[in-house]
Amino acid sequence: MSPANNDTIILELMRDPSRLSGNDLRDISARQWKEILESARDQRCLRYISWVLRNGDGPELPQDQQRNEKRWCFRALSINRECVSIHKLLAREKIEHVFLKGVPLAFRNYPHSWLRPMRDIDLLVPRGQLDDGYEILLRAGGPIDVYRYRDTTAAEDGKHLPPVHAPHRTVPVELHYRIAHRDRRIDPDGLELLHRQLWQERQGMPLGGVNLPVPSPEVMLVHLLIHGLFDHELNNGPLFVTDMMHLIRSQPIDAKRLSMLVEALSIEAAMPIAAALLPETDRAPFAPWMRRQSPGAVPDRSALDTLLLQPSHTRSDVKLSATLAKLTMRDRLLLVIGKFFPGRAAMQTHWTLTKGTAAPMPRQEVVLWLWFASVRIRQIATRAPGSLSAGPEASRRESLIALRASLSPSRTQDNG
């Protein structure tokens, strides 16, 4: 391993620090460490790498990094308080709910809750209680101004309502009515089964004197796979890897239950891909699918790693460029038309997110659309396939195209 490769250092520190010797780490210059830590911050894994370095044979971290650890710990405690408050509010009104993703991972699976950053609290409620649950949370925490133009009714192609403030305003809360977006590669009947299993097998996680309802480990693992590989296509960063690692290490995964869900969802092709990202010692739950995979069914691990470490400011460029590269001219035209005419509410939200809540909204829709169209023209000009003809972003685009091919239904069927 070349110590000059910052991305490799980040991933090995998160995935398998034993592959890096103390000398490898001590030979890294102060300037390079600064670059590594900046990249880790962009990927939301700075706290995890800081913890690994503090507990390993690496260099001593700067004082500001040591102070960060206390701040992260206090934030985790604040989110703990938010979760307990939300649970009590909803339970009092008999609103069924389950905490998803970050909350159970942080407080049940990671060695320390502060190691898992949480930008929001994800909460699932039954469709029939969605409006009542949303109203309770809205009254408790209040609306978030930048989302005030978003529709607060459940969309057929969506999965959650506009975020609201948590009761103590530490983080936003996303109220989900669906665990995942609909995807042609995922069996819709399998998604319905996943929802039923989530509610039937939910468990209690002790936190702050209450038992928070959370998914079973098998449902958690499948949800992570759908969210990381299908929804985000690995562009949500290397936390996808450590989430799976610590879930597998901290809770037994029932092989029969996992197999039932994977087959019902038709996501067999995702299993060897996820396994390729993990240390060999954490691959046991994926073994049946690894044995059955066809030669060439999984993209090279280095290609997958490039998708995990995309700079935040280029992720949407790579994703759209990979999409455009595989579309016919007709489909490209339809995509562009859809991007240019999204509806007034979407344009208003984009204005608020771009300009800030203080900027006066154009009263005439044509003026708003002209501004929005100018933004879209600039974006499409930079995201066209030819604009990423060389360099790391072009490589990531090709890796993303390969990942999508591996996850396609035809490849899934080939894998048996």
Give an overview in words.
The protein is mainly alpha-helical. It has 3 domains: 6-61, no CATH class; 73-292, Beta Polymerase, domain 2 (2-Layer Sandwich), CATH 3.30.460; 312-414, no CATH class. It is 57% helix and 6% strand. The chain has 20 helices and 6 strands. The protein has helices at residues 6-15, 22-26, 30-42, 46-54, 63-92, 102-109, 130-141, 188-200, 217-231, 239-250, 255-265, 270-277, 287-292, 301-308, 315-325, 329-340, 344-355, 365-383, 391-406, 409-414, and strands at 98-100, 121-124, 164-165, 172-176, 203-207, 210-214. It has a 4-stranded mixed sheet, with helices on one face. It has a two-stranded antiparallel sheet with strand order 5-6. A hairpin with a 2-residue loop joins strand 5 and strand 6. Helix 17 (344-355) crosses helix 18.
Average pLDDT score: 88
Give the radius of gyration.
22 Å
Characterize the biggest β-sheet.
4 strands, mixed
Count of individual domains: 3
Beta-sheet strand percentage? 5-15%
Looking at the overall shape, the CATH architecture of the largest domain is 2-Layer Sandwich
Shape, principal axes of CA atoms? globular
Under CATH, the topology of the largest domain can be stated as Beta Polymerase, domain 2
Spatial arrangement of strands, main beta sheet: 1-2-4-3
| End-to-end CA span | 35 Å
- State the order of secondary-structure elements, H for helix, E for strand: HHHHHEHEHEEHEEHHHHHHHHHHHH
Number of contiguous helices: 20
Level-1 CATH class name of the largest domain: Alpha Beta
